[in-house]
Design a protein that fits this description.
Blueprint (H helix, E strand, L loop, with lengths): L2 H16 L10 H10 L5 H13 L5 H6 L2 H7 L6 H17 L11 H9 L6 H11 L9 H10 L8 H11 L4 H17 L14
Helix pairs in contact: 1-10, 1-11, 2-3, 2-8, 5-6, 7-8, 9-11
Length: 209
């Protein structure tokens, strides 16, 4: 079986087992962006607490976040860990968004160019940039994270030493470039990795067994 057929088979089995995941867990595109920055190197439950703090302080708006000094922002997002670093990164992204005219104005920018702009923001790497592109802006880019790598490696589709771009290219070449498909696929891989394909896997009963 070639990569395209195997990746399609994995998706069908996971979707049949788990159904639609309705990702990303957020109320607005801006909240997705904030979550994508805060989730770096921490558990999602900690991000939820930090976002709850931002909502409590009525800061989940582009203008208010941009006007909030990073020092103050750091104290509010403290539950997310590495709060001083993440406050700087979040401030960098929201200030960039404001200078570009907000989320709506980004719709006119081609995806490759927009991705390059995000990667030039302080502390934004490929995974965070692609999470923003896919989940907040609906662009057809596949997000590669540790869960994706783990599943593909155990399934035999990767050797484990590929770069981010090489793993992403597997999906971009093998599957239709549709944001909805990439959204569901990535979310399903995350669910599989959290429930069964953990550091010590539970293979009996796995949809991919």
């Amino acid at each position: 079986m070639n990569d395209a057929r195997e990746l399609a088979l994995i998706f069908r089995r996971l979707y049949r087992a788990y159904g639609p995941q309705h990702w990303w867990p957020a109320e607005t595109p801006l909240e997705v962006i904030v979550g994508a920055v805060l989730t770096q190197n921490t558990a999602w439950k900690n991000v939820e607490r930090a976002i709850a703090n931002l909502k409590h302080h009525r800061l989940l708006s582009l203008e208010r976040l941009a006007r909030t000094p990073p020092v103050k922002l750091a104290t509010i997002i403290r539950p997310a860990g590495f709060y001083n670093i993440k406050a700087q990164r979040l401030h960098s992204v929201v200030r960039w968004l404001r200078t570009r005219g907000g989320l709506t104005a980004l719709g006119r920018i081609p995806t490759p160019e927009l991705r390059g702009m995000l990667l030039r923001c302080h502390g934004i790497g490929p995974e965070t940039a692609d999470s923003i592109l896919l989940y907040a802006l609906g662009r057809p880019v596949f997000v590669v994270d540790a869960y994706t790598r783990r599943v593909l490696n155990r399934y035999g589709l990767t050797a484990g030493n590929e770069t981010y771009d090489q793993v992403q290219a597997l999906f971009h070449k093998a599957l239709p470039r549709r944001a909805r498909l990439f959204n569901e696929y990535h979310a399903l891989l995350v669910r599989l990795a959290k429930e069964r394909c953990r550091a010590i896997p539970t293979c009996v009963g796995c949809p991919l067994a």
